[in-house]
Amino acid sequence: MNRKDFQRLAETRLVDAQALLKSRRYDGAYYLAGYAVECALKACIAKRTKRYDFPDLDFVKEIYVHKLEKLLKHTGVSDAVLQEFRKNPTLDTMWGVVKDWSEESRYEAHGSKKARAMLTAVGDPQGVLACIRRYW
pLDDT value at position 24? Predict the structure, then answer.
C-alpha cells in the first residue's frame, strides 16, 4: 500500500463509519472511525518513505502497529500536530477521545454515546482527521 491508498482508505472508512452510525451500528461505527485515523497516520508515515530505500527493520516493527499515539510519533509531523492539539482545547479534547482507540475495540461494545463522540472527534470539519489531512 502507498500513501494514496492510505489516504483513500481513511476517507472511505470515515464514510463507512458515518453510515454505520446512521444505521445505529455503534460498535462498527466506533471501530471504523478509529481505523480511519490509523490509515491517515500511516499516510503521513508513507509520505516520509523514499522510493528505493530499504527500510530499517526496527522502524518497520514500530509502524506495523495499530496504536495511534505510537503511529503519530513516526509521522515526522507529531510535534506540529501535538502543538495544534495544545493550541486548540476542543481539538485536544477530540484527540483525547480518539487516542485510546485500538484494534481490540472491534471486539468491544461501545454504545451510542461513545460512537457519536468518536465520530464527532474524527469526522468534524475541525476534528482529528481534518488536522492530520493537513500533513499527509
Answer: 98
- Report the C-alpha dihedral over residues 93, 97, 100, 103, rounded to 10 degrees: -150
Instruction: Copy the grid coordinates of residue 88.
Output: 486548540
What the chain holds in terms of domains, given with CATH numbers, is 3-133 (1.20.120)
pLDDT recorded at residue 52: 60
Has residue 86 got a pLDDT over 80?
A: yes
DSSP result, 66-86: --HHHHHHTSS-HHHHHHHHH
Taking residues 72-96, report their average pLDDT. 96
Taking alpha carbons only, the member of 63, 65, 31, 69 closest to residue 47 is 63
- With a pLDDT cut of 90, the percent of the chain lying above it is 82
Cα(21)–Cα(24) distance, integer angstroms? 5
Q: Do residues 76 and 107 touch, judged by C-beta distance below 8 A?
A: no
Cβ burial of 125 (10 Å; 0-12, 13-18, 19+) is exposed
| pTM, entire model | 0.91
